[in-house]
Amino acid sequence: MSTGFFDGIDRIAYEGPDSTNPLAFRHYNPDETVMGKRMEDHLRFAVAYWHSFAWEGNDPFGGQTFVRPWHPQDDMGRARLKADVAFEMFEILGNPFFCWHDADVRPEQGNYADNLATLEEITDYLGEKMETSGTGLLWGTANMFSHRRWMSGASTNPDPDVFAFSAATVKGCMDATHKMGGQNYVLWGGREGYETLLNTDMGAELDHMGRFLSMVVDYKHKIGFKGTILVEPKPQEPSKHQYDFDVATCIGFLRKYGLEKEVKLNIEQGHAILAGHSFEHELALAASEGMLGSIDMNRNDYQSGWDTDQFPNNTPEVALAYYHILKSGGFDTGGTNFDAKLRRQSLDAEDLIAAHVGAMDICARGLKAAAAMIEDGGLEDALAERYAGWQSDAAKAMLDSDLGSIAARVLSEGINPEPRSGRQEILENYVNRFV
């Protein structure tokens, strides 16, 4: 039975690049083959439950602008209505997955026992809807940053009772994710960081965070969860400094605590920008270390200083992101989650559908451009040419040598290299041929 929220909006169809229909796909054709694989299976789109259904239109300077039939989100009846609307949207879009935080799907009860009971109740309800719709769960996670109990962190909190509450909360969310057949479980430490070092024992907090994540991995194996454990880098906001600052920081953290073979990364475009990096940098670094797990696809407003989580609309940026994803072998359990939200002035149900349609089209265009670049091989050829000198026997031997031997060789052979062009503009022009 329809909720009526999306009345008048039919399932989105692929109409091709000449279509002018704002509620049709122009580039995303799920069954189109790209590099020997269906486009849907490459992209593995997921809708973010929080921004699409739980977010009320607030920003750092203003409150609620959205008035939805499931507001206020304070009882289980409205939680079920929200789920009904969500699955109607999943059907309209035809996306294969969705993602949730516990606080998105169930109302806050103020204590662990009741939070767990309502989470189990609503995830049973979601599971029934998944069975009839065919929509899967890309990942679940716990919101351990919104409620006041988390104001000084979760696993890094100076109060051991908060650590205990955090551990119990994650156990419940992992159980629910496992029950629903989730393909990953994500930990995003929204307040795992500090506001001032004057009241922070950083060494203790990092050790507690490392031990907490080790417990998560142990519990994964105990319950037989076959999905991937992911952590999500973010540098700041809301905390002044977060311990999961960027990909490099997370890799160092995982190695320090012996978790680099158990945990991969869920990388968000907006977080990369806040850390002072490009999205492609973060993806390439994670891929180079075998830790690229999944992505949150969005963008930031480059004129704003916070994480604006806008839907993607920049084909060149998206193409370079998927270039590194495809080069690394593509997604395994991961996918493309739209951790993106409407502008707070975009009030209509049609706006929510149109935002996802446009984002899915941009990703499809980017994927096809990335595949075309890989099949053409121009970037790989340029890279091989630039590093060709390292294929010589002398260069390979140098890496097993020592400073004295190398200096003697420079003297004896009169080595005095001339710089060679990096050809950056030529390569940027090359990329623009495809996007």
Automatic annotation (TrEMBL):
<comment type="similarity">
    <text>Belongs to the xylose isomerase family.</text>
</comment>
<feature type="binding site">
    <location>
        <position position="271"/>
    </location>
    <ligand>
        <name>Mg(2+) 2</name>
    </ligand>
</feature>
<dbReference type="GO" id="GO:0005737">
    <property type="term" value="C:cytoplasm"/>
</dbReference>
<dbReference type="InterPro" id="IPR001998">
    <property type="entry name" value="Xylose_isomerase"/>
</dbReference>
<feature type="active site">
    <location>
        <position position="104"/>
    </location>
</feature>
<feature type="binding site">
    <location>
        <position position="296"/>
    </location>
    <ligand>
        <name>Mg(2+) 1</name>
    </ligand>
</feature>
<keyword id="KW-0460">Magnesium</keyword>
<keyword id="KW-0963">Cytoplasm</keyword>
<protein>
    <recommendedName>
        <fullName>Xylose isomerase</fullName>
        <ecNumber>5.3.1.5</ecNumber>
    </recommendedName>
</protein>
<comment type="subunit">
    <text>Homotetramer.</text>
</comment>
<dbReference type="GO" id="GO:0009045">
    <property type="term" value="F:xylose isomerase activity"/>
</dbReference>
<feature type="binding site">
    <location>
        <position position="309"/>
    </location>
    <ligand>
        <name>Mg(2+) 2</name>
    </ligand>
</feature>
<dbReference type="InterPro" id="IPR013452">
    <property type="entry name" value="Xylose_isom_bac"/>
</dbReference>
<keyword id="KW-0859">Xylose metabolism</keyword>
<feature type="active site">
    <location>
        <position position="101"/>
    </location>
</feature>
<feature type="binding site">
    <location>
        <position position="339"/>
    </location>
    <ligand>
        <name>Mg(2+) 1</name>
    </ligand>
</feature>
<keyword id="KW-0479">Metal-binding</keyword>
<dbReference type="GO" id="GO:0042732">
    <property type="term" value="P:D-xylose metabolic process"/>
</dbReference>
<keyword id="KW-0413">Isomerase</keyword>
<feature type="binding site">
    <location>
        <position position="307"/>
    </location>
    <ligand>
        <name>Mg(2+) 2</name>
    </ligand>
</feature>
<dbReference type="GO" id="GO:0000287">
    <property type="term" value="F:magnesium ion binding"/>
</dbReference>
<feature type="binding site">
    <location>
        <position position="268"/>
    </location>
    <ligand>
        <name>Mg(2+) 1</name>
    </ligand>
</feature>
<dbReference type="InterPro" id="IPR036237">
    <property type="entry name" value="Xyl_isomerase-like_sf"/>
</dbReference>
<feature type="binding site">
    <location>
        <position position="232"/>
    </location>
    <ligand>
        <name>Mg(2+) 1</name>
    </ligand>
</feature>
<feature type="binding site">
    <location>
        <position position="268"/>
    </location>
    <ligand>
        <name>Mg(2+) 2</name>
    </ligand>
</feature>
<keyword id="KW-0119">Carbohydrate metabolism</keyword>
